[in-house]
Amino acid sequence: MTKTATRQTATAAPRARRTRRVTLALTVAAVLAALASPATAGAATGRDPGDADRAPARYTLQTLDWKPCAGQPALDCATMAAPRDWHHPGAGADLTIAVSRHRATDPAKRKGTLLMAAGGPGGTGLARPAFLAAGAPAVAAAYDIVGFDQRGVGESTRAVCQTPEEFQEFLAGDYRDQSPAAIDRVIANSRKLAASCQERSGDLLPYLTTEQTAHDIDLFRGLLGERKLSYYGPSYASMIGAYYGTLFPHRVERMVLDSNIGFDGTWETYELGQPMSFQRRFDEDFTPWLAARDATYHWGSTPEQVRAHWERRRAALHDSPIVEGALTIGPNQLDSLTMSAIYRASDFPTLARLLTTLDTWQDADPATRAAAAKAYNSYLSPEFAAEYFAVTCNDTPWTRDLGTWIRRGAENTARWPLAGARTLAFSAVCAAWPVAPAPEVKVTGAHLPTTLMLNSVHDPATYYEAALGAHRALRGSRLVTVTGNGDHGQYPTSNACVSGAVERYLLDDTAPEHDLTCPSPQAG
Question: Which are the contacts of 510, defined by CB distance < 8 A and separation ≥ 6?
Fold first, then answer.
């Protein structure tokens, strides 16, 4: 080393030490100032290790202008702007996200904020805090309960795919029909649905994903002035919660995931399991229930007789669909109504009454027929479907080969016909979907507090086998298994075992030491 270089090094060393001391002093001052300053709505609270990238200031410095929600006097509503694409927040027009809040009813006991999301994908969440507050008053006393319409639905920026008339074409006919002409028609309708989504919502579609929604939640958290959130998520919202916890683990105080999507894998794998679980719920829970009430509904005194009666009515609708005004009741509508009504046992009587209308349709008065026809056509709407297909087709990769789906559709139709018959129609939409899948989010439970999971053993939509896989993936979680039950959504509930576990966790910070089994009370 030369003498000149030695002198330069000697001179530089004290300067570097002074620079480090100044930098350290400024850093300490900044930290102390942050600790001394109270959190305020719109203030960025800094990033914890493990968080995804923090939102740009133009979003975090918004103010939520709370006003009473229309038609919901217990709730306040506001809107916030969010980037169309959180990975490129400067590109494209902002989205509007509608949010709501139910204030803690006992401010002296307030523990924080509990955020809840909606299921589906395709459900709206704006009014849900009021329903949770009514069903769980102890939780409502201790928490501000907040909700939102996720991007793509409700009062938020919405996706548009088809008109009601166009969507009826997608649901028309008989998905069980395996003739070449019927298969061609189903595929054409699925492609038409995917193309209409691209035509009418093309610049929005790629950003309707669970991962993007998780970023919206964290923006909402910051605007609420909360360093951490607690979370309750039923059905698809279990996946939203798992993704949020993966991307922002240090922002989670407590998390309850109820009736769990198989968020450890792909939507394709998960949905291929649903025909089995819907058929199990129908065969093992609903048909025995209806058979035990033959004196009331006259549909058969054994489960076998009930299923035979159901098949006769379905075959009649295949040959001669019922047309009531602009609505049509065909075999697909019967399947869809039945699937929607077996989510909860409390809806079994309604389904039974609607089934009996098929036996006496011509003798029913016009008002009864109109109400029944509306019920048979109410399971899916074009608004729900736009979000449902956007998220499920975007989130994870799908097999694009239609030959594969034709074979799987035939197999599922033969083995589990209630939901299996729609396999080709629904999967062909994702096979034709116009955008690439979202970034992969691998759920592990790393850095999360203990997460409480709930699932019934005969849930038709979020089946128990998928919940077990999600539970294994979410390391450190505790699973409450509800036996003797097939309901979708286990909280709030009259089951004291389930309610006790949830409320000890949310109110007393006490999670079960191990997985827990809660038998269902026997119905009277």
Answer: 504
